[in-house]
Each structure stands twice: as structure tokens, then as C-alpha cells.
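Whiteboard transcription, Tuesday session. T.W. wrote the C-alpha cells on the left side:
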């Protein structure tokens, strides 16, 4: 009875470990293995592993090579190495020798920690840094070129000066939006400002005005279908402005890929609160990717929208802001037809 209870406790302990784990004796036979190890290494049931040689049950891999060398050489000191486990898992392998009461080597316990998610995060950060570099370099180059042209004498033409300054202003706004997104992502727990009662119509019009010039350049029509007034809502005005700017920026980019089209900003009062709609006739987002567009650092992987790159922060930050206001940010889209993003903000109760 005591032995059975002890065995059950040991099994429970093995399964509660955060890593894949298996134990082998000095001859290389498996003595125990947990479910995480079975899932990582193979699909054979546990009973097909115990008392079997590692060379018979383990798939050919860096891990088997390391474990086999350790068994054959009877290494009695800890071993740690990064290994590749088929089909494509990168793992940190730790081999710990096991000794009896007389300090004689009995075998080894192997721990495998899957490092693939860490590798994916590192790749995502590398991609992010490349995109940030590109998104900063483009507007800086444009601003520098227009300023140099003005200094060389173009400022003498009021019409040219106005057009150049408009472009400089738009490029500056683009950099500002990027910096604000990075700042929001870096400080998600920063103390928010107090909310106040706001009519959002001026906020929405101000956001739309920022994109009038870039919409014309991309041969797009930017429509504002807004009432004269809306019932006031309790919000942080700057943050809602940031959300609308992010959504308009995405809509114009996705529609601009077609070289023509329409972006529309609408707002209306419902019984439960306000709804803001930003719709476009752009390239759209694939159905299976749509739920992921609100994840931090996620960029669309398929279709024309994948060409846009970006930091993958704008939509994540926007949804977080809306949720902090007690609202919702949702999206629907159809490839080739366009997308609609809807912000729902509740009335104060």
C-alpha cells in the first residue's frame, strides 16, 4: 500500500514539472518519463518507453546524441546544452547525474525546456526593430529633402512652400504616431489621466483632418459622415484620438495598396453608448488572421496587407485603450473588399 501511494506521488510530481523530463539508468534504459516528454519527443504511449533503450525509443536528434554520449562515457557531472529536437523544437537540455548513498553513479535525469517560443519572440523583436528603423528612416529622409529644397530657394514660392510644409507636417505626424505606439507598449501600466465628459465630434474631425493630404496623394476619398453633436461620454480625450488616428492610418494604408478607394469615418449614438466606425474598401484581411490582428507585434502574414509591415502595435494599443474605457474594439473584413473597425464606448452609468 505504501509503495503504491509513493508511486502515485512520484507520478504526480513528474507530471507537475514545468519541463519535459525522463530518467535513464547507466545502461541507457528509460526508467521514467512524463507526458510533456512524450509529447515533445514522440507519440508512443508511456508503457512502450519504460525499460526500453533510448536508442530504440528516442528519435534521431541532437538530444539523443548528447544523451547517448553521456551514457556511454558515464559522465557524472551535470551537462547543459541547447539541442534541436525534431521536427523543429529548440530545447535547453540539462542532464543531472543521480548517485546512490555510496555516491555511485546510477543514471541521469534529463530535463528539456522548449525554447521555441523564446526564439519566436526574439525573431519578432528583430523584425520589429527593422520595421521601426524603416518607418523612421522614410519620413526623416523625406523631411530632410523638403527642408533642403526650401533652403535652396524654393521658399520664395508660397505655393511650393505650403505644399512642402504640408508634407513635412504629415511625415512628422507619422513619426509621432509610431513613437506614441512604442511608448504605450513600453509603459502599459503607466498611471492614466483622469477621464472627462467629452463630445467626440471635434476629436473625430481633428483626427480625420490629419489624413486629408495623404488620402489625396493616394487617390483616396476620405469621407466623414458625422452628426453635428453626439451625447457626451466619459473618456480620456487624447487616448480616444490616438485610437481613431491608428484606425484611420491602417484604413488608408490598406486602401492605398489598391491605388484607389474610399475610407469612411462614421459615428452614432446607440442605447448603450457611442459607436465609431472606420470602414474602407481596401485589400482586406483573411478570416483566419482577423482574430490575431489585435495581438502585440502581430503583422498580417498573407495577402497584399503583408506588404505594409509595421510594428504590430497600433491595433493592440488601440484595443487596450478602448477596453480600459469599458468599451470594445471589433473588426470584420473580407479579402479584396475591405474592412470595418468599430469602437463601442459606453455611456456613463
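and on the right, the sequence the group agreed on:
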Amino acid at each position: 500500500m505504501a509503495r503504491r501511494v509513493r508511486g502515485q506521488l512520484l507520478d504526480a510530481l513528474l507530471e507537475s514539472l514545468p519541463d519535459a523530463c525522463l530518467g535513464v539508468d547507466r545502461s541507457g534504459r528509460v526508467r521514467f518519463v512524463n507526458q510533456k516528454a512524450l509529447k515533445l519527443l514522440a507519440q508512443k504511449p508511456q508503457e512502450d518507453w519504460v525499460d526500453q533503450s533510448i536508442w530504440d525509443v528516442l528519435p534521431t536528434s541532437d538530444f539523443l546524441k548528447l544523451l547517448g554520449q553521456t551514457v556511454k562515457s558515464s559522465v557524472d557531472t551535470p551537462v547543459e546544452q541547447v539541442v534541436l529536437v525534431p521536427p523543429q523544437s529548440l530545447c535547453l537540455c540539462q542532464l543531472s547525474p543521480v548517485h546512490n548513498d555510496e555516491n555511485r553513479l546510477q543514471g541521469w535525469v534529463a530535463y528539456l525546456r522548449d525554447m521555441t517560443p523564446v526564439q519566436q519572440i526574439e525573431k519578432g523583436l528583430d523584425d520589429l526593430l527593422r520595421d521601426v528603423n524603416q518607418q523612421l528612416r522614410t519620413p526623416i529622409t523625406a523631411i530632410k529633402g523638403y527642408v533642403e529644397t526650401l533652403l535652396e530657394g524654393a521658399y520664395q514660392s508660397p505655393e511650393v512652400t505650403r505644399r512642402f510644409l504640408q508634407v513635412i507636417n504629415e511625415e512628422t505626424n507619422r513619426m509621432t504616431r509610431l513613437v506614441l505606439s512604442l511608448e504605450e507598449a513600453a509603459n502599459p501600466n503607466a498611471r492614466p489621466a483622469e477621464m472627462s465628459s467629452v463630445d467626440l465630434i471635434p476629436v473625430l474631425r481633428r483626427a480625420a483632418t490629419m489624413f486629408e493630404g495623404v488620402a489625396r496623394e493616394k487617390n483616396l476619398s476620405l469621407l466623414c459622415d458625422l452628426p453635428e453633436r453626439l451625447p457626451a461620454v466619459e473618456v480620456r480625450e487624447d487616448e480616444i484620438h490616438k485610437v481613431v488616428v491608428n484606425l484611420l492610418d491602417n484604413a488608408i494604408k490598406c486602401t492605398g495598396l489598391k491605388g484607389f478607394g474610399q475610407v469612411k469615418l462614421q459615428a452614432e449614438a446607440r442605447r448603450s453608448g457611442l459607436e465609431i466606425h472606420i470602414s474602407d474598401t481596401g485589400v482586406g484581411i483573411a478570416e483566419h488572421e482577423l482574430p490575431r490582428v489585435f495581438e502585440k507585434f502581430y503583422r498580417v502574414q498573407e495577402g497584399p496587407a503583408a506588404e505594409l509591415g509595421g510594428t504590430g502595435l497600433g491595433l493592440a494599443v488601440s484595443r487596450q485603450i478602448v477596453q480600459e474605457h469599458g468599451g470594445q474594439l471589433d473588426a470584420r473584413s473580407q479579402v479584396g473588399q475591405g474592412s470595418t473597425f468599430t469602437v463601442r464606448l459606453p455611456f456613463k452609468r
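Someone added at the bottom: The first helix runs from residue 2 to 16.
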